[in-house]
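Report of the visiting student (M.T.), summer placement. My assignment was to run the structure pipeline on a short list of targets and document each run. The first record concerns ABC transporter permease.
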Amino acid sequence: MFKNYLKIAWRNLIKNKIFSVANIVGLTCAFAVSILLTMTALFELSFDQFHLNKDSAYQVYLTNQTPRGAETSTSNPVPLASALKEEVPGIKRITRTLSEDALISFNDKDLDLDAEYVDAEFFNIFTFPVIAGNISNPLPSKNAVSITEETATKMFGNTDVVGKVVQVQIGGEEHPFTIASILENTPPNSSIDFDIVIPFENHPEYESNKDVWNSQFHPVYLQLEDGMTPQQFEINSRAFANLHYKGSIESDKRDGASPDENGQYKQFHLLPVKDLHFATFKEGLVDTAHTFPYLILGVALVIIFIVCANFINMNIALSEKRLKEIGMRKTLGAVKQQLFFQFWMESLIVFLIAIGLGLLVSNLLIGPFKTLFVTKATFANVTQPGIIALFVISIFVITLIAGGYPALILSKLSTLRALKGKLDFGKNRLRNGLIVLQFVIAIILISGTLVLHGQIEFLRNKDLGYNKEQVVSIPLNGRKDSYAVLELLRDELSQAPGVLSVSGSDSNLGLGKDGSITSSAMGFDYKGRGLITNALTVDYDYAKTLDIELLEGRMFDKKYSTDSLSLVINESMAKQFGEDDPLSIRINMDDSVTYSVVGVIKDYYFQDVKREVKPLTLFLNRNWDLYYAYVKIAPDNAAQSFDAIKAAWEKIEPQADFLGSFLDENVDRTFKREKTLATIITSGSILGIILSCLGLFAISMLVVAQRTKEIGVRKVVGASISSVALLLTKDFLKLVGLAFIIATPISWYFLNEWLQDYASHVSLSPLFFVAAGLTATLIAFITVGSRTVKAASANPVKSLRDE
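After the run finished, the structure tokens were exported:
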């Protein structure tokens, strides 16, 4: 019996070749893309889930009630961790961490590594397994370090290196450290990523700040004791915050800050470690919405839905051609269950073929896919037992609907009615409903694509206040002193054609090839008011190199020996001072040092372009290191100038990698998430439209076949080709129009919400939605019209010949 079902199913698939191929091709494409998208989404959702203590480990952040409103900070003072552990009950373990680059040397080999300065409890809170060396205590002393397996292989060629001594450059000086343990490489789905782990006490800022509470520059993580909740910890820490931040609280009160709903001006909160990857801080709140992976999953699901809707529609339409077959089989004694199983078997065969081909195609595309979407996801993310079980159940349900629905209706027909070959599927309500839903999804995806690309172009073309096209940024990751490197660069490039100026700062603009983004802020009192500013250490010619506009006064100049006590501020900082003449401002930042404002520059985006420009103060302080050099080149022959910069760097720092990049590249890297999202939505839109039109084309073929005789009669009585084509096409276009009416408000709402995350964004013009609707309508018209015009052009004699 089962063999007979298979034979009949296979014959029916061969008989309806066009529809079978359309179904298999559509399902194969949908499954291949959905597998890859699901793989990416599940990889994103797996971030930081491997830590054994993930349910009790948290990052500490502080909410500050300031005169400007609520602000959050994850940067903490050095003494905070030990004080919290001693004074606030409920903390099991606590650790400080700080990510920085570090240059390590062994014999004549140098490596620039991602270093993590941590306390010993770091390895008890987080799960980074030790594969060799001191397993119980990977950092047994202040002069011990742990390195990853990959770092050991790069540096020594093997992992049998426990006990060897390496030189680590810290604060411009080399210090010997003994390798105490070898760690597994950090997983690709870890928010904390490092090559070497160094005891926190070795950080160059540690000694000068170990008892200072107003210098905040590193994160703190803790693990709560069993039974302690984050809410209870927050209550327990209120008295602690009021005690240790008393001076800051008094200053905020004086300047007009309002307490939160609990009467607190400073409140510690805990962010679960498993949400680190998704956390964004805004206006005193933390948002851990998993929007990105869920959106990817959503695109995968709508692609599957569209292709399954096509499959169901075509099965329903094709079933009408099999009425006489059903009537004959019922006459010969077939029961409802047999008919039902036959239809389901045919659907299952198509799905199994498509799944096999989909797996093959996704495997072939995984390399280009990972490159395009910059992801480290693998098939291991989708081969988990729970995911496979869910997939199998979904296939079972879809095939049951696709094959079972028409079978259920057909099996209820009387034998006589079936043999007549006429069936009314309720005026095609299900078919039309699915077509409308398909195009609702397609129009939402198209409008999302247009707005996403519009926003990216808006940010890319936005005036950032500095010259991003002609300036090369270079991380100063070598052995030499940063100021010495800048002077050597100036000397080497002084005769290079096309090189206009050289400068530097302690922070990059955009995201460089080193992947580092840093910022620092400071507060001080001015005329009885507390002010907050971002701080930036720069070298001479900073504004000249970046083409930043000087509004008042001057920039730092070698002619003035006192410029180490001078400040240059931006417009936002000048507004915060509230003085008519900013150049008259004098600031006492401590008891003995007075700084003078000598210049005001125009606001420029020194941080993420997606955020508002904040107050900024530039310092010229040779005691503070520079981490980036900037080289401005002429627009003519930029490639030759870039090569000259690279050659100069290799001469000055022969053992350090050259990681120079143009600032426009750096800015583009900050749009990585938006560009990935745009690519996914665009791909989903294209595939969704193709699949929707594939189904629409197949349905139009069936409709034309059903109305062949009507077409012939209309042509005989004088109907034109255009009138017949319009008659057959308009019903489908009405469905697309209805989809546009439904999709537009939905799309507008979600896109408007998304754009609110940006300080400045593209205007949500109606043209985005009109363009999406017209695109969908045009594609649908071409798809259906190509078939209807062919039918309308046929000889009416041929149309009327067959009964």
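The radius of gyration is 34 Å. Residues 52 and 127 are 6 Å apart (CA to CA). I thank the supervising group for their guidance throughout the placement.
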